[in-house]
Design goal:
The protein is built from 3 helices and 5 strands. The chain is 27% helix and 27% strand. It is an alpha+beta fold and 154 residues long. It has one domain: Histidine kinase-like ATPase, C-terminal domain (Heat Shock Protein 90, 2-Layer Sandwich), CATH 3.30.565.10. Strands 1-2-3-5-4 form a 5-stranded antiparallel sheet. It is globular.
């Protein structure tokens, strides 16, 4: 008997959202990421995911030359990945900011809290991303969020 095992999709879930480059973009992105985590029952810490998303969207908006950035959320292979696409060709450069600096620590935060982060060039500019590995000890989301923690509106 010749049977083949069904192939597993490489991307289990994907959600792409254009964000208007402006002050409300980071809040909208946080809400989209939080909703995806709960809808898909992704076992990651949503507070970390929304914090890192906010950092990358804020950087993209600060350096954006167009009117929109693209938020791309994927869930596959034991991880959540968030990509932020913009039309700037300037690549992100982590800086060694002082403790009292008001800016400059965002990429350091992304690097320390994510499983992986990076960037790649796109035909329209670049994308900066982070991944969070699944944490099997987190419970499924309910209307209040993982482990029953109340999900405050951002």
């Amino acid at each position: 008997m010749n049977t083949m095992a069904p192939t597993r999709p490489t991307v289990l879930h994907r959600h792409r959202v254009p964000l208007t480059a402006g002050p409300a973009a980071a809040a909208e992105a946080r809400g989209q990421v939080r909703a995806a985590i709960c809808t898909w029952d992704v076992p990651v810490d949503p507070s970390v995911a929304v914090l890192l998303t906010s950092e990358l969207v804020t950087n993209a908006i600060r350096h954006e030359v167009g009117e929109t950035v693209m938020l791309d959320i994927t869930c596959s292979c034991g991880q959540l990945c968030v990509d932020i696409h913009d039309t700037s060709y300037s690549l992100p450069v982590p800086v060694d900011a002082s403790a009292d600096a008001e800016t400059g620590r965002g990429l350091m935060l992304v690097a320390s809290l994510s499983a992986e982060w990076g960037f790649y060039r796109t035909p329209a500019g670049k994308a900066v991303y982070f991944t969070l590995a699944f944490q099997p000890d987190l419970y499924e989301c309910d209307e209040r969020g993982p482990q029953g923690v109340h999900m405050w509106a951002q």
